[in-house]
Write a structure and sequence with these properties.
α12 links the parallel β10 and β11. Helix content is 38%, strand content 15%. It contains 15 helices and 14 strands. The chain has 414 residues and is of the alpha/beta class. α2 runs parallel beside α3 and α6 packs parallel to α8. The strands form 2 sheets. A 7-stranded parallel sheet has the order 3-4-2-5-6-1-7, sandwiched between helices. A 7-stranded parallel sheet has the order 10-11-9-12-13-8-14, sandwiched between helices. One of its GO terms (molecular function) is hydrolase activity. This is DEAD-box ATP-dependent RNA helicase RhpA. Belongs to the DEAD box helicase family. It is an enzyme of class 3 (hydrolase).
Length: 414
């Protein structure tokens, strides 16, 4: 199978060739023909397998086939949960559409909206956006969605999470009912599928690999470590494994900042990336990491989706996520596009249940190892026994000393 055999335009084939790609990945091979036909799609594949091209290529093909008169209007809307992912998708649209007469734009919060508004006023065919900024600019009458033909939710499991559901519903109501809807993600729970079925019509389900799986070339290791030893163990692993580039995940923003300070004091240059950082700070940190100016990028789950770092060799879960699906996305930052990668998790006593949840999701066991010199001493806290609820229907024996019973005894004597 080649990209040409999928029926894509010559201009797109040229752009694909310029990027060094020759054959489509399994998700691209399955999704592109269905999207070209204009059908709704629910697509699932591992991270790093080319999902973005799986929907951007056919969208660009379909849009370029249409003759547009007058000012350009938004005909394709792509929503993402994070700014980083929005930027990545926008870059893909520009790269693959380099030889087409189409205009694209990206909008997200955390930056001045004026440049975004100026771009929108010039006319846009493809808009990549995060929900909050999109709704803000629509309310200010800078955006019209009445001519959207294709609506994409990228990382749909997170987009349809309860935190985004209301925004998605509001945006869906602003778009014509007659449209093509595409949902792409690496993970789909049963609950998310139910929600997806509510906005898809006669959708074709495309699955390149089993759901909630990780890339085959990502080796997974887990170390049982005391919480107080995690920083020392991380530093030891960085030096012992000669890590030149490592993406480290924490659960909290404060934890990410604090870990960066500790790493810097030990001579390991690092930067933090999370929701409290401005967009410029996040972009600069990511660019410094890619350029090799810093060795460790410490991130919260905001970075688990959308970070595309070519040939990233190491990912470390300094703290395990409490949502098993987030583990899949975290370690999916390594082992991309067929490259090998290593994902390491540092597991404290209070995180053993999280590990069990991850193993259950992946249907595999991740053996727990120990690090020489850092044998764990803390034990999981015993689970509190559930108190038995009193049976309120059971008849209680009367108290012979109660006022009511004493009165009965006096009346009986009489």
């Amino acid at each position: 199978m080649t990209f040409k055999s999928l029926g894509l335009r010559e201009e797109l084939l040229t752009a694909i060739q310029e990027q060094g790609y020759t054959t489509p990945s399994p998700i691209q091979e399955k999704a592109i023909p269905v999207v070209l036909e204009g059908k709704d799609v629910l697509a699932s594949a591992q991270t790093g397998t080319g999902k973005t091209a799986g929907f951007t290529l056919p969208i660009l093909h379909n849009l370029s086939q249409q003759e547009v008169k007058g000012k350009r209007a938004i005909r394709a809307l792509i929503l993402t949960p994070t700014r980083e992912l929005a930027s990545q998708v926008y870059d893909a649209v520009r790269t693959y559409g380099a030889h087409l007469n189409l205009k694209a734009a990206v909008i997200f919060g955390g930056v001045n909206q004026n440049p975004q508004v100026r771009t929108l006023n010039q006319g846009v065919d493809v808009l990549v956006a995060t929900p909050g900024r999109l709704l803000d600019l629509h309310q200010q009458k800078h955006i019209k969605l009445g001519q959207v033909q294709t609506f994409v939710l990228d990382e749909a499991d997170r987009m349809l999470d309860m935190g985004f559901l209301r925004d998605i519903e509001r945006i869906s109501n602003l778009i014509p009912k007659q449209k093509q809807t595409l949902l792409f993600s690496a993970t789909f729970s049963k609950e998310i599928k139910k929600l997806a079925n509510g906005i898809l019509k006669h959708a074709v389900q495309v699955e390149a690999t089993p759901e909630n799986t990780t890339a085959e070339r990502v080796d997974q290791e887990a170390y049982r470590v005391d919480k107080s030893d995690k920083t020392a163990v991380l530093i030891k692993l960085i030096y012992d494994l000669e890590m030149e580039q490592v993406l480290v995940f924490t659960r909290t923003k404060y934890g990410a900042n604090r870990l960066c300070q500790k790493l810097d004091r030990r001579g390991i240059k690092s930067s933090a990336i999370h929701g409290n950082k401005s967009q410029n700070q996040r972009t600069n940190a990511l660019n410094d990491f890619k350029a090799g100016k810093i060795k460790a990028l410490v991130a919260t789950d905001v970075a688990a989706r959308g970070l595309d770092i070519p040939l990233l060799p190491h990912v470390v879960n300094y703290e395990l996520p409490n949502v098993p699906e987030d583990y899949v996305h975290r370690i999916g930052r390594t082992g991309r596009a067929g490259a090998a990668g290593l994902a390491i998790s540092l597991v404290g006593a209070d995180e053993l249940d999280y590990l069990k949840g991850i193993e259950k999701l992946l249907k595999t066991q991740i053996s727990l190892q120990t690090v020489e010199g850092y044998l764990p001493t803390d034990e999981p806290e015993p689970k509190a026994e559930k108190k038995k609820k009193p049976n309120r229907n059971r008849k209680r024996k009367p108290d012979p000393n109660s006022k009511k019973e004493r009165r009965k005894q006096v009346l009986n004597k009489k």
